[in-house]
Each structure stands twice: as C-alpha cells, then as structure tokens.
Amino acid sequence: MIFVIEHLDVLSKWILAEYKHSYEIAKNEKVDLLITGVKIEGLPSTEKRFYEIFNPENVIILDPQAEEELKPNDKAEAIIIGGILGDHPLRGRTKTLLSDIFPKAKKRNIGKLQFPIDGALYVAIQIMKGKRLSEIPIVFGLSIITNFKGLEEEIYLPFAYPLVNGSPLISEEVIKYLVGNRNYRLKWGGKEEEIEFNYQGQSFLSR
After folding, report:
1. Where is the signal peptide (predicted)?
2. What distance in Å separates the CA atoms of residue 180 and residue 201, rounded to the nearest whole number?
3. Which structural domain range is residue 177 located in?
C-alpha cells in the first residue's frame, strides 16, 4: 500500500511545509508516500493525478464526511489524502473535489474533525499498522503563544492534532512561518509546552 497526497490547493509556503513534514513522517514510519498533481523538487511527487496512476476503484479516499471509519483491515492499493489547507468551519472540499468525482472509490474517515495534511497522514499510517482510531491520542485546537514587544500574542489553530510522545504533531516549518524566529510555547487541552529556543530544526516527532 502507498499513501498519496493529491494536491488540490495553491502551493503556498504553508502547504509546502506540510508536504515536507509528511515526507519526513513517511520516512520515519517506513512507508511509501507520493504527492500527485504537482512536481516538487526534493519530494516524491509527480504532475500526474492519482487517477492517472491508480484505478479509483482500488483506492480509499480519506474524507471527514465519509460514513465509515478507516480500519486496519481495510484493503486498497493506495490511500488518498486531499492536499487541501484546512478551513474553519469545515467546507467539505474533500467531498467536492475528490469523493463526489470518484463515486466508485471507497470513502473512509479518521473521525469527523479536520486534520492538517501531515496529521491526517500520520493517523492513517497508524491505523493501517494496526491501531484503531480510538487508540490514537488526538487533541482538538492548538495555540501558539509568543511575546512580541512585551505583548503576548496567541495564534489559535482550530484543527485536530495527533499526540506523539505527549505533544501535538505539527510541522516546525509551519510554526516558523507563523511566528518567525521568536521563542514560543504551545498550549493544548489545558497543557502547555514552552520552547525556550529559536528554530534549530528539531522534529516534533521526538518531542
């Protein structure tokens, strides 16, 4: 099985950071990843669309609006994740841009919450490795808190994040895009994690 991100959005710095982090996750988890619909140097990617490579009848599309939950015993040639930046509230773009266009593809959800692309990939990998969705710790809502000229600033991300080693799985490049090189702390579910350093490229996979 291969995990596929079908690019369906503008190739912004934010979405590119999520793609890069997705590739790091795939390498760490020792699974195959392919980004379709756009060629990106340094990432496993192709301008071909997923349906030019795989028979849509043999894939699973991850869609928050799908009726069935993804389970470890689901069989498919590929799992398709929409390369779409999140909206709040959820607009159902995966359904519009993928599920409705390929009615013969299987549709599965990983819960009804909206994940970043890299988070959705991580959760899907864990499920296909044998975990049930209910066994994967997930938190909804993440705040990035910084101080700027003596004032505290908070950026709230209204999305779902899997917890890895007790911390939300989020791309450090995304955080840098949002707060620059300022020190920051993360706040979620009543917990806080203070980061006392500026960006040095450490991975949230190990924190």
Report:
1. none
2. 13
3. 138-206
C-alpha torsion angle, residues 207, 173, 86, 186 (rounded to 10): 40
Asked if 51 and 129 sit in the same domain, the reply is yes
* CATH code for the domain of 53: 3.40.1280.30
Residue tagged 């996979």 (tokens): 205
b/e map 16-51, b = 16+ CB within 10 Å:
bbbbbbbbebbeebebebbbbbbeeeebbbbeeebb
Q: Are 159 and 133 in contact (CB under 8 A)?
A: no
Asked whether residue 16 falls in the same domain as residue 104, the answer is: yes
pLDDT tens digits, 106-147: 999 999 999 999 999 999 999 999 999 999 999 999 999 998
Domain tally, the chain: 2
